[in-house]
Amino acid sequence: AKPRVQGGTGAAPRWRRLDGGDRRRQIISVAQRLFAERPYADVATTEIAREAGVSHGLLTYHFGSKRNLYLAVLRTTLVVPKSPAPVPGTDPDFDTALEGMTEWWLSELERNPQMWLAVLGGRGMGRDPEVDALLEEIEERARADLVAYITAREPSEAPPELWAIAAAWQGLAEATAVEWLKRRRISR
Predict the structure, then answer these.
(1) Residue 185 and residue 44: Cα distance in Å, rounded?
(2) pLDDT in the model for residue 168
(3) Which of 26, 54, 122, 186 has most Cβ atoms within 10 angstroms of its Cβ?
(4) CA-CA-CA-CA torsion sign (99, 78, 167, 171)
């Protein structure tokens, strides 16, 4: 039997065969929406499978568990693009770099606000060491890109104070996002 794919117009589901990568992306997309709408504990894999138009067995085949699927959603959602690399030995344009990074951040927040809020507030699953490690890895990579851009050299060569400034900027961006998207105290 061919896998089912939900139609986007509320029409009856269509049957369509997808390759493994496309099927994984489809399942992740549905899971991303559901995890953004409700807490992790309130989302069942049977619901994700049903809304993705696949069997529960196929979801398990691709991800193994709800936790693994959640980690895949985080990895997909929280992809931070590398900062543009300045030419070594030149003075990078900090204002342009920060403006570009801020524009990217705001666009990502607008594209998927509920998922970002779920991650920023409460970190989704609670105190799961693997989730915490993944989020720390993503944050550290973003800080390293910022430090590399600012110094025009390897991040490992930067002083610790610069890393602290990058972390502070990151914290400011996250807190500001919550004020905008959750509390509606500010606009874009």
Answers:
(1) 33
(2) 92
(3) 54
(4) positive
